[in-house]
Amino acid sequence: MILVVAEHRDGKLNRATWEAVAAGQALAGGQAGSNLSILVLGANVRGIAAELSAAEAQGVITIDSVVLEPYTADGFTAALAQAIGELKPATVILPHTYQTRDFAPKLASRLDRALITDVTALKTTGGVTAFVRPMFQGKLTADVVPEGDTPHFVTVQVGSFRADAAARGAAPAPVRALAVAIDASAIRQKPEAPFQEARQAVDLSQAERIVAVGRGIKEQEKIPVAQQLADALGAELAASRPICDAGWLPMARQVGSSGQTVAPKLYLALGISGAIQHLVGMKGSQTIAAINKDPDAPIFEVADYGIVGDLFELVPALVDALKE
Amino acid sequence: MKIAVCIKQVPARDWHPRLNESGSWIREQDAAFEMNEPDAYALEESLRLKEKHGGEVIVCSAGPARVAQVLREALARGADRAIHVEGEGFSGADAFVVAGALAAAMKEERFDLVLTGLQSDDQGSAQTGVILAEALGMPHATIIMEVQASETGLRIKRELEGGWFQWISMPLPALLTIQSGINQLRYATLKGIMAAKKKEIRRVEVPAAAAPRQRIAALYAPEKSKKTQMIDGAPAAAAKELVRRLREEARVI
Amino acid sequence: MRYWALWALLIVAVGAFAMQIAARMRLIAAAPGRFSSNQSGARLQRFLFDVILQRRTIRERPIAGAAHALVFWGFAAFAGYTSIEFLYGLGLADVTASPWFHVYRLGLAPFAGAVLAGILYLLVRRAIVRPPGLGDHVSAESVVIALFITTLMITFLLGFRLDERTIAGRVNWWAHMLVVLAFMALIPASKHLHLVLSPMTVFLKSPELGRVRNLDFEKEEVGLEAVKDLEKKTVLDAFTCVECGRCQDNCPAWGAGKALNPKTLILQTREALLAGTRDRKLGELYTEEVLWQCTTCGACENQCPVGIEHLPMIIGARRGLVSNGEAPEYLGAMYNHLERRRNIWGLGYDQRQKFVTSAALETFDPARHDVLVWLGCAGAFEADFQKSLRSLFEILRAKNVRFGVLGKEQCTGDPAKRTGNEYMFQELANANIEELKKAGPKTILTSCPHCVKTIGEDYRRFGYEVEIVHSSVFVAGLMRDAPAAKHPAAASAGAVTFHDPCYLGRYAGKSDEPRELISMFGDEIREPVRNGDNPFCCGAGGGLLFADKEEEPGSRISDVRFTQLQATGAGTVVTACPFCTIMLKGAQASAPAGGGEGIQFVDLMTFVNGRLKKDAAAG
């Protein structure tokens, strides 16, 4: 059977779990006679389990223990090692989240089994499933096949499988509890409560999305236009040097060789020409989108997506498009 | 504190990988190699901890002869000595094999703290550090942003998704995988480079290799091209299209 | 009576002189390094022009320089007279009655008048007018020396009038001799030591501007860390400084209100040497902050009338800091980029390939190509400058010059060398030299003046010699031979001004060729203050391209220069260096509203190509 391990925090299920379920169902679909179960562990997980039972699955298994709250690598590894020993799945699927990365290799190595991480797709040919994953910073793609006895562990890249592709069952899947014995004293990590960084310190280097403005914004009074877009995207606002020199935005928001170096998932450059001192500060961004009136602006050389046009027309249109 | 830093030598970031004949790995002959960037941050962190608490920093790496280059680089930056688990078979090997070899070589040293980068720039499995912790019997924590050490143990700041963080206390000895960019890397100074020539790199025989746990069946270039996609049309339509591509293609929103 | 008194006084004065000189000679002897004396022809020529003809003294400050020249020539002329009077006074020989001595004395009279005029002018300038270059307090020593010289000339002239046998005559004679002796005793401890040392320092100064030797890693050299590491020429320079302030007046950092003052550095060196504090760290003596403010523009060295070489000292001290890991953060980042990606931006090599492919550039092959075009960091990665290079390629192709580029080009290492990271520099240099030797070009063409200096002069120290020429010089040569050299400006809008890059106008001495090219098209050229071979730096050099200038006092050097260019009223600024363009455009972007926004920056190649095409279109 295929076992999907769910992730949750503060009573909320992580959306990536549904992606893992979709992946698991895809894998099960490719293997005749296979079925899917979902495992959730923690303390007081009944509510989560109920949510999960909506999936098209054979069952939801809970491991409920105060020792498992909060999450610790030692605790989860101990619990899952026992559970997997009992359940004997062929494949265990988890979402490739920071939490999973923290314990999955430990679990796999304790059981001396294969773990393939950051999988973006499945390829089944002749009964053998290869797991597709990026290598060399995305420059190459690899089809990886696990070796050795089952269970095999697989973590799926967040966003690779679509959560809404996870099939819902006609009737709720049955929930059952699994008892495991965990020695609390053997848990060596003592975590404190998670927190968000204080908002005063602008740390662009940690931002996942950035909207940056350049001289194309023309006036200080127009900056709120960009701020709106930043808010709609859940992004930080940044700027090229002239904007900060003029005092329209604080120095902490300057991106470039004499400012911050950033590498967000998304960098949206508004009215920035792309002078090399600016480029140097944001070239590491995963995806770069640029809007500029000048089709020859150097920023388009490094952008993945570009629109030549008036940012004062395009930005409000983007805000609208994002609302949908 | 006796600190170990595990570093990996990977093909240079801007080198375009070419495949070998069987398509099972890259052509290493044309590649330029450098220190894995997250490992460089781990090394920097270890040097800062040494400056603060005293002790020594030992860098360890498993790989073919060419790996000595990054070990020398680490010594030039301030590490005290190096352990080189030498073997040709480490190119393209999976995390189990590498971690197993490192553990065997590192066990007797009885390190107080082991640091590694959170993942490598080539395979990027993000497993080696954690498997190594299990093999050495140490508690571990991953994606660490800040390290505070004292006699009683560690207090480390772990990064969670979405701008959340968490402090964790752990006893020593322990292993941490370090997040990129947590500090400012120092460059190898001239004095460091000269001193490095006199520092020890101990070569260790490859212990009976652990069985590999995965096999690369095929390696190929993805279809996606790196050309700029220009989006035309009236503002409203272009905006919609950009949002669509960011959402579905690039998957950044 | 007079003999013995004079002997006694002479011995005292010579003794005082010798003791002080000896102390300084010991310091020079104890200093490491060697004096250089290669290219003696060029050195002798400079000696002739700068010492004998006082060229550098006069050029920067014409009137004061002329006054000094008069004093100097007078001093030289008087040498014979003074010696003869001493020989007489000491009872060794008496030719004072001879007729040719009489003629000599008469001939000296106009010199005495000139010296008086000169020294009085200089005294008034120093004590009353007090220009900033001379410091903020009047140097008592200078006033005393000026009064001495005045006394010497007056007593000399009075000597025509007063008979030696009278009391007045004898007093006058003794006054003259005593002043000479007092002068001698005072020379070593004052800035007038330059009288003895400057002929040496001028000769020993390298013909190469900003010459900084390679560090020998086999000998574990790390650069200058403490006062005791300062090399022989630097120590000599410290004692020869005349405190004139020409270096300070021309330093762009000082001119922008920063803390760096080249004159202060030299005087601090002198003070530390005399105090005997050999172990004092240079980073603490000069202060590190000051050391990092230098753009290596070379104005200080170039203006110095006594041959002081500031750059080896500043760059040497930087090396000491860098070797110990004490470079500022922005340089650390730049070094990491150079190490990993072999260019200052940290950009991937595939970007250079994109440009090479899109500009249809061939790999250099000596059998098929006349010149090798060196793209440089900016050429390979900076979109703006690539436009200029495309213009250059069009010009070359139109003139049937066959050219190719190097397959694997790395940064020449200029930013590493000028900021003191000698290890990185040598790594890059050796790698490039290997590639260049394999490619085997006879002539290298580049649009970056920094590359010209580095490949043309610094690489020579590794044994690699090649002719490298800046595009302005090469293209001017191409156009000169063209049949119709004069092209009418096809509707040029407004005046044009040219900003001389420091590494082209000053280091390479090429300021005519760009103007030749611009004037070919009939545009009106306006000159900014500080041009030609003494431009005001754009502020990019010495690693300052990446500096976080917000925390610095004063303004940005680039802002000051932009204001100077703006003041010409020209609508177009022509540049010939990628970094000048980056800095000045940045200054324009940051300038307060009002005036500067309309100024167009055009690289020289783009300008020339544009005009050529306009011409062709016009018929």
Summarize the structure in words:
Chain A has 324 residues and is an alpha/beta fold. Chain A folds into two domains: 2-186, Rossmann fold, CATH 3.40.50.620; 204-323, TPP-binding domain (Rossmann fold), CATH 3.40.50.1220. Chain A has helices spanning 16-30, 46-52, 73-87, 98-110, 223-233, 241-245, 276-282, 299-302, 311-323; strands spanning 2-5, 8-9, 12-13, 36-42, 59-64, 91-95, 115-119, 121-125, 128-135, 140-146, 152-156, 175-177, 190-191, 195-196, 209-213, 236-239, 266-270, 287-292, 305-308. In chain B, the strands form two sheets. In chain B, strands 9-8-7-10-6-1-4-5-11 form a nine-stranded mixed beta sheet, sandwiched between helices. A two-stranded antiparallel sheet of chain B has the order 2-3. Chain B is globular and about 65 Å long. The longest helix of chain B has 17 residues, at 37-53. Chain B contains six helices and 13 strands. Chain C is mainly alpha-helical and 619 residues long. Chain C has helices at 2-30, 40-52, 55-60, 62-89, 99-129, 140-161, 167-186, 194-204, 232-240, 246-250, 252-255, 262-275, 282-291, 299-303, 310-323, 329-341, 349-358, 376-381, 383-398, 414-419, 422-439, 449-458, 471-480, 502-506, 512-519, 557-566, 578-590, 604-618; strands at 371-374, 403-405, 443-446, 467-470, 496-498, 525-526, 572-575, 600-603. Chain C starts with a helix and ends with a helix. Chains in contact: A-B, A-C, B-C. Chain B binds chain C through residues 12-16, 34, 184-194, and chain C through 215, 217, 220, 222-223, 319, 322-325, 327, 329, 332-333, 335-336, 339-341, 347-350, 421-423.
Brief synopsis:
The complex is a heterotrimer of chains A (324), B (253) and C (619). Chain A is α/β, with parallel strands linked by helices. Chain A is built from nine helices and 19 strands.
Main interface by residue count:
A-B, 76 and 76 residues
The amount of helix of chain B comes to 25-40%
Fraction of residues of chain A in helices?
Answer: 25-40%
Which architecture of the largest domain in chain A per CATH? 3-Layer(aba) Sandwich
